[in-house]
Amino acid sequence: MSLVNRIFKRVRKDFFRWQYHTVARQILNTRPLERGELPFMLLSMVHQRDIYSYLVAVKSFTRFLNPQRIVVVCDPSINQDDRDVLKRHLPHVELRNAHEFTHPDIPRGGTWERLFAISSFVESIYVVQLDADTLTVQPIPEVRQAIEKDIGFVLGEKEDTPIRSLAEARENALPWMEPGAHIQGICETEMVNVGLPQDARYIRGCSGFTGFPRSAEMRDTLLDFSRRMGNRLGKDWERWGTEQVTSNYIVSNARGTKPLPFPKYGTPDVLNGSTAFLHFIGPLRFINSKYKLISRQVIQLLNNAPA
After folding, report:
1. Of 99, 208, 246, 268, whose CB count within 10 A is highest?
2. Which tens digits make up the pLDDT trace of 82-119?
3. What angle (nearest 5°) sits at the alpha carbon of residue 302, between those of residues 83 and 75?
4. 163-171 contact pairs (CB < 8 A, 24+)
5. pLDDT single digits (tens) 274-307
6. CATH (one of 3.30.70, 3.90.550, 3.30.1450, 1.10.20) for 3-159+209-223+256-304
């Protein structure tokens, strides 16, 4: 890509980002969220730059499923003003610091603290992990059913996202193995070599929206998986993306896990009339006005909802 094209792409991205944040700030004009009654926890890890988008995400989600508990694992960038905003709009939110959820056997940073936090809470309650760059725009009965049945769910990346054996996951990832390969593919080719259970499974999902059923074993499974993969990959195990691999592994081996139907639950590039849940992953977030326009619609619905 030429220098001119790179500059144009950057300017275009900055413009769409600015447009989006102008709209997302309007979430501050909506009413505070009331505590729900559904027996699950909604958990997110939030950075200061994502305060407004998180509020749009959580308020759009709770229009359809409003949990008893909401937890925010606060990135170190979150300050007191940010906490006040979160408390004003989510009066019952439980604000926890990321440094509370560390362990010598797992990497630090990225979203590892989020996953370790989940491993603590699932001992007593179903946990739904929700990223700040998501929007819920229609009913999500598949998620409600998973919560009611206490089974796992995971966001797939395409229409057919099967849960595979570790050997099948390796075969699926091998075509991507070339110099500079992404850490996710590297991990997927190595999982079969680290002594995990013979019947272990794996799905190439997205950790941005995942349902974890109650479990007394998740923390042990998490630490064991991280130790084995860390011994195999060394410093590479600290790279961005290893938490997603771990999340995918854990939920794949949880009780009754199913991938959510795609594109009913998907990314904005596959948006259609049936889409209920959107994940605006980085490469697709600020390349056009979709994020802004759908966020504006969500905020308008929140403002027009009966008190």
Report:
1. 246
2. 999 999 999 999 999 999 999 999 999 889 999 999 99
3. 25
4. 163/201, 163/202, 163/203, 163/252, 163/257, 163/259, 164/201, 164/202, 164/203, 165/199, 165/200, 165/201, 165/202, 166/191, 166/192, 166/196, 166/200, 166/201, 166/202, 167/192, 169/202, 169/204
5. 999 999 988 888 999 999 999 999 999 999 877 6
6. 3.90.550
Confirm whether pTM is higher than 0.85.
yes
Is residue 38 within 8 A of residue 65, CB to CB? The reply is yes
Report the chain's terminal Cα–Cα distance, integer Å.
Answer: 52
- The answer to whether the peptide bond before residue 104 is cis (omega within 30 degrees of 0) is no
Render pLDDT for 135-158 as a digit per residue (tens, 0 to 9): 999 999 999 999 999 999 999 877
Cross-strand partners of 126: 40
Q: Is residue 129 within 8 Å of residue 213, measured between CB atoms?
A: no
Structure tokens belonging to residue 9: 């792409």
